[in-house]
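Quick one:
INPUT:
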């Protein structure tokens, strides 16, 4: 990379063709390719070609979503698509809405901010240890008390925790944890939070697209009982980064974000009927990330998206089967979404970590790692719907071949 880059800012430029060729090639050559079935460490998605094409068009058109005069059509598209996606989460509400974010991190931040603004006093976050690290960081950013952890899969323990706490509480549950892909028991959590008059936010960054799948939607039962829901379509939605959303059951819930700047949304313009966009984000200039999402929804439809979700989850079950049948590999649990944790039987944590590092440094496979039940596991996060059983077989062979004896 250093060689192809040469002088970063030459006195006289190389011209477009050379610059594009050398730099794009160098980055592609040294990329961790998320489409490679053996590159499965993170929730790092192989983007759909059509979403990439739409994203390129968005860059060329360059509408900015902070004021109507910069994005008349794109802002109308955003309004329609965000409402439609929010209605997937909140089908029984009359005015569900969603705002577009840079991903799960920003959506979780905004969810905590809205909870703080609703309560008027510092709100106490309660979450499971498996909650995404961005939840604790958002509490820090917003000067909220440090989150209290409670095992959300144990309703009695959550009940105890909520009984002990005084003042406003926001429980943050996860639909698809980053480490194992587990979905917290949403209906039981919603019952408990209701009983204590606590509020509920659900981080469905990973599991949200199960909504499209008739076969798997039931796993998200209870989602609509949350005060807000994080979605992140640059994971199981195959969008290029960034494609986050924060859904709320009613558009009025977004009112705390309202903001006026004379040059972008003067009151007399708003009174005269021009759409007021500034309150749809904390950002000002903002990319039309909705375009690639809209193109994808239209091109694939619900059944097309469901097929991708189902195939990806099926690939995880294939891998779990291979591990299960393997005499020298141990499976952590059957996958809920598309994450599979496994390790060589009898290996130490150090050896397990070493296997991951060896495969990574040799450029043969990129696996993640996760701690579960006090042990370190190799983590395969499958996001390529076209992953074959043969490729997964290769993955298990590579792990076995790198296991010290
Ligand atoms: C990925 C993820 C996030 C963070 O999303 P970004 O898009 O990386 O900001 C938050 N929560 C969960 C559960 C995630 O899997």
């Amino acid at each position: 990379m250093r060689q192809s880059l040469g002088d970063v800012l030459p006195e006289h430029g190389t011209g477009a063709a050379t610059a594009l060729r050398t730099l794009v090639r160098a980055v592609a050559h040294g990329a961790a390719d998320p489409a490679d079935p053996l590159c499965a460490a993170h929730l790092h998605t192989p983007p759909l070609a059509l979403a990439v094409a739409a994203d390129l068009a968005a860059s060329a058109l360059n509408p900015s979503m902070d004021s109507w005069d910069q994005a008349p059509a794109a802002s109308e598209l955003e309004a329609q698509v965000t409402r439609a996606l929010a209605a997937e989460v909140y089908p029984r509400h009359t005015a569900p809405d969603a705002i577009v974010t840079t991903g799960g991190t920003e959506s979780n931040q905004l969810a905590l901010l809205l909870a703080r603004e609703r309560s008027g006093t510092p709100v106490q976050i309660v979450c499971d240890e498996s909650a995404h690290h961005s939840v604790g960081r958002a509490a820090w950013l917003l000067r909220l008390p440090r989150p209290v952890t409670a095992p959300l899969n144990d309703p009695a323990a959550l009940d105890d925790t909520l009984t002990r706490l005084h003042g406003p509480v926001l429980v943050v549950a996860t639909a698809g944890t980053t480490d194992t892909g587990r979905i917290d028991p949403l209906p039981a959590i919603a019952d408990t939070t209701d009983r204590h008059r606590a509020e509920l936010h659900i981080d469905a960054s990973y599991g949200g697209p199960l909504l499209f799948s008739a076969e798997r939607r039931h796993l998200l039962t209870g989602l609509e009982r949350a005060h807000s829901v994080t979605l992140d379509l640059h994971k199981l939605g195959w969008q290029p980064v960034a494609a986050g959303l924060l859904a709320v059951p009613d558009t009025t819930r977004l009112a705390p974000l309202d903001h006026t700047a004379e040059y972008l949304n003067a009151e007399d313009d708003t009174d005269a009927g021009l759409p007021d966009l500034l309150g749809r984000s904390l950002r000002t200039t903002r990319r039309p990330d909705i375009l690639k999402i809209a193109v994808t929804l239209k091109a694939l439809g619900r059944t097309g998206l469901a097929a991708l979700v189902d195939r990806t989850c099926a690939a995880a079950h294939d891998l779990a089967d291979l591990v299960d049948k393997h005499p020298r590999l141990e499976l952590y649990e059957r996958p809920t979404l598309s994450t599979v944790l496994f390790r060589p039987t009898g290996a130490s944590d150090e050896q397990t970590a070493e296997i991951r590092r060896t495969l990574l440094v040799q450029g043969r496979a990129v696996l993640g790692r996760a701690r579960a039940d006090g042990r370190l596991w190799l983590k395969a996060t499958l996001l390529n719907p076209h992953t074959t059983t043969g490729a997964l077989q290769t993955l298990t062979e590579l792990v076995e071949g790198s296991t010290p004896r």
